[in-house]
Write a structure and sequence with these properties.
Blueprint (H helix, E strand, L loop, with lengths): L2 H19 L7 H25 L5 H24 L7 H25 L8 H20 L5 H29 L1 H6 L2
Helix pairs in contact: 1-2, 1-3, 2-3, 2-5, 3-4, 3-5, 4-6, 5-6
Length: about 180
């Protein structure tokens, strides 16, 4: 097993630690969760960079890397929502949009794979990932540094921008792969 694949497995192994961090009985659990989330995100950047740079791209990596990313993001979203870390309504909509988009794009990729096509991550999908990382990390830590009113305004702004880009990237995937949808068996 090569280094990028090991980093993907490390990211998956960090998910239970992220979950546990939400249940630590301390006032700085958001900071601990943010640290674990950032560490996991760093493994995502590193595994992709190393795989491309050293030509270590494998079928395992192609399959598991996106699954690890989706598990990490969905886990953070669900537990942040459950712990009341989002501004009401904005948080619920953001979690729904994000998770729904991931299911829809995964389904589209499965249809493409059945037809022998591959749908690679596009620039909007990568922007979506970066914005989700920034938004979730900021929300995990901003309660420690910002007054409540400012925190809510910043959180709503970040969530809104990220949700729009998330939807936009989904529409972009469909548009670029419309031939797959129209011609599938």
């Amino acid at each position: 097993m090569n280094l990028p694949n090991k980093l993907t497995l490390v990211r998956i192994a960090l998910i239970p630690l992220l979950v546990a961090s939400f249940y630590i009985d301390t006032t700085c659990k958001g900071l601990i969760a943010a640290g674990i989330f950032v560490l996991a995100y760093i493994t995502d950047m590193l595994d992709g960079y190393i795989a491309r740079k050293r030509n270590l791209i494998t079928d395992f990596g192609k399959f598991m890397d996106p699954i690890a990313d989706k598990l990490l993001t969905a886990c953070a979203l669900v537990f942040m929502l459950a712990k009341g870390m989002f501004v009401p309504i904005f948080g619920e909509v953001f979690v729904f949009v994000t998770i729904a988009r991931e299911f829809i794009i995964s389904g589209l990729r499965l249809v493409a794979a059945c037809n022998g096509d591959v749908i690679a991550a596009g620039s909007l999908g990568k922007l979506k990932t970066v914005l989700q990382f920034i938004t979730l990390t900021f929300i995990l830590v901003d309660g420690y540094v910002l007054p409540e009113l400012i925190k809510n305004i910043v959180d709503c702004t970040l969530i809104s921008i990220t949700a729009i880009v998330t939807l936009w990237s989904m529409i972009d995937y469909f548009w670029k792969s419309r031939h797959i949808c129209l011609n599938s068996k």
